[in-house]
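fold-stage: in
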Amino acid sequence: MRVKANGLWIEVDDAGPRNAPALLLIMGLGMQLTAWPEEFVDLLVRRGFRVIRFDNRDIGLSDGFEHAGVPNVPLAALRHSLGLPLQSPYRVRDMADDARGVLDALGIVRAHVCGASLGGMIAQHLAAANPERVDSLTLMMTTTGSRRLPGPTLRARVALLSRERGPSREAWISHTVRVFGTIGSPAFKPDPAWFRHRVGLSYDRAWRPTGSTRQLLAIAADGDRSPLLQHVVAPTQIIHGIHDPLVPVANGHDLVARVPGARGDFIDGMGHDLPMVLLPRFAERIAENAARARATWVADQAPRVALAG
């Protein structure tokens, strides 16, 4: 279904009991809501969540920004390397406003939030600017954007900025398979035929390559989010692959150090993807973190109940 959020039409998938605690999943760069596997959604619903996925702006079936044109990526990369400001059609904080708008459209006052990669950057903005809306926060394979942290390996950077060899469906599928072969988990490689099939389904649902480029520019323009993290009050879980070549694991350790009370789960053999074999582990960490939020709420309410009595 589509909802009006922050002035845009945003495609949303809403699963699980409507009276269950809401869990908002925010996906990463160029990825549609379907990049959160149905199997993962099922695991989370079985753990008692109402699971909400959505297509970020400019991706999937949500409103696009084709009118803004295609950014000059080499020029933007040069300006970023020199520390010069970048002009972007929208910012990551705008995407966080979209996420809050999705909650508003669904009538959800508070939610647990989980973001992966760019989705984790969006989630940082959402949690810092709207602490009263976020019960718990899970950040997966993401970063503050600090320049003092290690960036992608050269091989991962080349893969991310590469383009498909032709305009056909098969060319795009092969390109995506190559990219994830570079940035994905070395210890948890998917079955090639199964993965090509999933990539094909994504292409058939919505192919929006220029949206990915504009989202990439939004990331570069966002800068360092470290100052925001002092405003995050929700219990926070960091999940990061030890072998992530796109967002090296030092970024995850930095988040644990900067977010008050954050916990880290650093997974050997994991890269920059969501291996099917690890989905139960991810779901368990999200559920444990949500339980921390409930325990904190109960502890906060106890003195008030005593005073009222």
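fold-stage: in (second)
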Amino acid sequence: MKTSSRRWLRAVARLWACLPALSVFPVLPAFSQTDPRLVEVVRHAQEGESDSARVKIQQLLTATPPTDTLYPQIVYTQAMVASDASEMRRQLQRVAVEYSSSSWADDALLRLVQLDYASTNLDGAARNLERIRLDYPGTPLVPQAAYWAARTYFDQKKPDLACRWIADGLKDSSANLELQNQLRYLNQRCGQFAAGPAPARADTLARPAAPFDSQHTIAAATPETTSSPTSPSDTARSPAPRQPASTPRADSAPAAPAGPHYRIQITAVRTKAAAESAAGKLKSKGFNPMTFEEGGLYKIRIGDYRTKAEAAAALPQIKAKLGGSPFVVAGS
């Protein structure tokens, strides 16, 4: 057996040995695939016919254009039937980076977290965990990510971060009793830590882009799904310059703090020209787009909602009109 194969088997063994139960995190997402052909590929892999599974997945990739909405799901499934860890990682990174606006990007990041943890790359696991938190705040995978975050940050001797993740995971884990029990077990280690204020979100530290023109509104960006690579340094930026505040009158009541706004992100592109083009198309359809920059990426958003529920209610109609994979993000 080749050395790389032995390492792969040891990594997989370590990965699944540290799981509380296979029912919490199934090895392959057999029932999450939406295409019958992919379900068949997963079934072949689960039945020990991995070579056949890889042949079929390659045939699907060849027959499917990269612009097809099914393509990222095919790439994700290819990762799940990969013959070694490096190939699995490469395909998962493709989904997370090249198809970050697809519904499979958060799954890919969580799998990368698991691979990093299995190979004792705790820093890598932490980076991908923070990408999940910042780029996909509404993902249903938060409870699963919280389990891995707890293990990662406890191992890194950062219990405050571990416990914050656990608290977030427990809020949304009621649908999975076994996972909830695992989080509660890990939460026993958090009793000695007093609840403190949450750390400042990276979205409050992102720098604003320079205006494209007088018709574009440029503001500080909040991290979320993008269609281009995200650098680990994206999560730590210098704060934008503070504007001098006027001195309030002694008899005036203090102004109420402004609450968060919610917007709907339509797309993200790598160049200013592409962003201007996307914004122009949205304007032609009656929308008032806003362009945000973060880490060299230009994110096009529409709407301004006071609550997440309002934004979510508007999402189906916008998706029906524009297509694609728009989603709700929190902003300022």
